[in-house]
Structure prediction request, 124 residues.
Amino acid sequence: HVQLVESGGGSVQAGGSLRLSCVATGNAYSRKCMSWFRQSPGKERELVANIYTDDGRTYYGDSVPGRFTISEDSAKNMLYLQMNTLEPEDTATYFCAASGGYCPYLKSPSSFPYWGQGTQVTVS
Prediction:
């Protein structure tokens, strides 16, 4: 079993930055692929970025701008999302997710069995 807890969301002005954090505990084999998703009201949950913890390779969603960077610190069981030059369109609830699968094949929320509760990001 895997537990995920996000933090770091908040309200920020356009052009600002935020760093989201997610502490991940539980079976390491079930969280080889760690991801960030986001969901805005009335929209589907979409992939922001994946990181494959075995080799550190990262993968970004098609709609995510180059302003976001995913990273992880395995020693601390932490996942991060650095978001720079934020825009109002980035306003959403951001979720940390985990899967034991291989990241390049995992883009749909249905591929991830473990989820955090989400953290709200509001850009005005």
About this structure: The chain has a mean pLDDT of 94. The chain has no helices and eleven strands. The CA atoms of residues 19 and 82 lie 4 Å apart. The longest strand covers residues 18-26.
